[in-house]
Amino acid sequence: MDEFDRRLLSDFQRSFPLVPQPFAELARRLDCCEDEVIEAYGRLKDEGAISRIGAVVRVNAAGASTLAAIAVPQSRLDEVAALVSAYPEVNHNYEREHGLNLWFVVTAPDRARVDAVLADIGIRTGLEVLDLPMRAEYHIDLGFDLP
Amino acid sequence: MTPSRHDLALIAALRNGLPLVSHPYAEIGKACGLDEGQVIARLGTLLESGVLKRFGVVVRHHELGYSANAMSVWEIPEDRIDEIGARLGAVPCVTLCYRRPRRPPVWPYNLFCMIHGKDREAVKSCIQGLIEQFGLAVYPHDVLFSTRRFKQTGGRYGRSADEAAA
Prior knowledge:
The structure holds 2 protein chains of 2 kinds.
Chain A: H1 3-10, H2 22-30, H3 34-46, E1 50-57, E2 64-70, H4 77-85, E3 90-96, E4 102-108, H5 111-125, E5 130-132, E6 136-137
Antiparallel strand pairs in A: 2-4, 2-5, 3-4
Helix pairs in contact in A: 2-3
Chain B: H1 5-13, H2 24-32, H3 36-48, E1 52-59, E2 68-74, H4 78-89, E3 94-99, E4 111-117, H5 120-134, E5 141-152, H6 161-165
Antiparallel strand pairs in B: 2-4, 2-5, 3-4
């Protein structure tokens, strides 16, 4: 990763400029031109280094969310994981090394929709879905430090 | 603050992030019925009021070489969990730290820390450091490394006009 990419990734995780032409503003700070910044972010997005330039919403401030887990028999893991990932309300879905081996996050405009998704997954898979909503947040998200 | 209908529509329009064009806020505004200036002003207000934790580049850890991640969980007594959670949440290798309900007998743990590292050893050494520094060895504990990522996108926050009608 060169210095230009490193700065694009690490310097603008917070306080992205709220001005009509934010990429031109970044270009001014990085001493290049607006098109170069836009192109570079397009490439970093294609490469998967960034997921998006956008808002990180405080949990439950503009909708509802929960962390859910299922103990899936190994022979059914691919099938159940695909079923879960297909819900637009599921935004993270991971296999973890544990008896409870499928962990996913459900976010929706309200708690009723979260409940409906969890119930639907339970019915369609025939498996118990553990619902672990956040009760308190102890970490202040300042973005992710790059070395 | 409670976000207004316009705020929720704006947050919904931003789910996939800013479009990579010269006037991205104007484009976002088209999707939620606001003009460029209104989008910029509302985002400022949502940040100040804390509805948004931050606004900017959201990186993907795995693709940046942080290929190991573990959910490190503890069962902490209620009268100590806020104090211990606040301390753990301030450690640099801890990227998220939450209290969640216990679900005995299948799930006894109530404190969740997400730990990212270059490899498993780095993650394990971070966790070992937490246990030693904060005297956590007395509490039941487990570590769940992730082995496969099936999906990772932004959350479906906000409420678009379609969803409001639904």
